[in-house]
């Protein structure tokens, strides 16, 4: 573990940074979701985009997402150092200095925003800039450490990529882009609250006011169920919009039935049962939530592909 005030490392900690350490600063697993949802937003938009322009748009959105991750790790290094899940990240483990992460994040942010604007349009670039600001300043620096609603409001940062992709293609934002934003926005709280249920010890140690810490596990389970019901209604309803269709509807019906069952399983169990079975329901729900969002956006992508050949939607 690193003493962040003195940059001292524990004996045996790695101090030589490798390429993989700098890449890890960009949170590649989170970047995967950013890239995929932005890609879907780009292709689902009712506009023709040159393949090279599309490639550049996704690249710069990905770089912007990675820059956000680096700035998040720079600011949250003290929290990461005391959480088991994050203690081996590049900064708390001593392999990368905080100043390096800050410099990388700032440079990549400016690069991504400017070049996205030059490659596509300045609306998309402005949305990317706002997304980086929202994630780093509004969520990371403010909400995360001050309110149990941190992940509810802060989830907006992860919901912007499909809207940015749509704007990159069309130069505008439509109802369909907002619906894709809302799909990710409503998915984020139950996804992270399930993680918080079986990782509560980490958040306690780091003094992060997650809902599990401030309101308890029972209240968190109720919130998961409520948000899952609202999410299911939104997800199924999206099937009857311009980005939906039969393939999307079938996907949404199956996945939301499973998601609702998972939320109900979490809701109806008592604390003793949760401790006894090592949070199996919460872990299963969290794993399903990863598939949930990718599958919904994958179905939107399939509908967009079918539409280009005259088979998409309800026509």
TrEMBL record:
GO terms for cellular component: plasma membrane. It is found in: Cell membrane. It is a multi-pass membrane protein. Keywords: Cell membrane, Heme biosynthesis, Membrane, Transferase, Transmembrane, Transmembrane helix. InterPro entries: Protohaem_IX_farnesylTrfase, UbiA_prenyltransferase, UbiA_prenylTrfase_CS, UbiA_sf. It comes from the Bacteria. It holds the Pfam family UbiA. GO terms for biological process: heme O biosynthetic process. It catalyses: heme b + (2E,6E)-farnesyl diphosphate + H2O = Fe(II)-heme o + diphosphate. Pathway: Porphyrin-containing compound metabolism; heme O biosynthesis; heme O from protoheme: step 1/1. Its EC number is 2.5.1.141. The chain crosses the membrane at residues 30-46, 52-75, 96-116, 122-143, 150-171, 177-199, 220-241, 247-267, 288-311. One of its GO terms (molecular function) is protoheme IX farnesyltransferase activity. Interacts with CtaA. HAMAP family: CyoE_CtaB. Converts heme B (protoheme IX) to heme O by substitution of the vinyl group on carbon 2 of heme B porphyrin ring with a hydroxyethyl farnesyl side group. Carbon 2 of the heme B porphyrin ring is defined according to the Fischer nomenclature. Belongs to the UbiA prenyltransferase family. Protoheme IX farnesyltransferase subfamily. This is Protoheme IX farnesyltransferase.
């Amino acid at each position: 573990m690193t003493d962040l005030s003195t940059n001292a490392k524990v004996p045996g900690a790695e101090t030589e940074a490798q390429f993989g350490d700098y890449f890890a600063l960009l949170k590649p697993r989170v970047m995967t979701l950013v890239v995929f949802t932005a890609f879907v937003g780009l292709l689902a938009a009712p506009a023709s985009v040159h393949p090279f322009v599309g490639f550049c748009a996704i690249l710069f959105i990905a770089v912007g997402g990675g820059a956000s991750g680096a700035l998040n790790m720079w600011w949250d290094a003290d929290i990461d150092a005391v959480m088991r899940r994050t203690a081996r990240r590049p900064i708390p483990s001593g392999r990368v200095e905080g100043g390096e992460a800050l410099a990388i994040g700032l440079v990549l942010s400016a690069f991504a925003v400017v070049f996205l604007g030059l490659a596509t349009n300045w609306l998309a670039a402005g949305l990317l800039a706002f997304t980086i600001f929202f994630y780093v300043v509004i969520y990371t620096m403010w909400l995360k450490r001050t309110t149990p609603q941190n992940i509810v409001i802060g989830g907006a940062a992860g919901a912007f990529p499909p809207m940015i992709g749509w704007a990159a293609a069309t130069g505008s934002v439509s109802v369909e882009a907002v619906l894709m934003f809302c799909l990710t926005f409503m998915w984020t709280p139950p996804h992270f609250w399930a993680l918080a249920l079986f990782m509560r010890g980490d958040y306690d140690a780091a003094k992060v006011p997650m809902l599990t810490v401030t309101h308890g596990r029972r209240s968190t389970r109720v919130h998961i169920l409520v948000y899952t019901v609202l999410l299911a209604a939104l997800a199924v309803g999206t099937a009857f919009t311009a980005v939906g269709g039969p393939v999307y509807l079938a996907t949404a019906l199956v996945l939301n039935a499973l998601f609702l069952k998972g939320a109900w399983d979490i809701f109806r169990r008592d604390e003793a049962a949760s401790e006894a079975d090592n949070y199996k329901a919460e872990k299963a729900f969290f794993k399903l939530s990863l598939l949930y969002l990718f599958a919904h956006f994958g179905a939107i992508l399939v509908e967009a592909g079918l539409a280009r050949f005259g088979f998409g939607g309800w026509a």
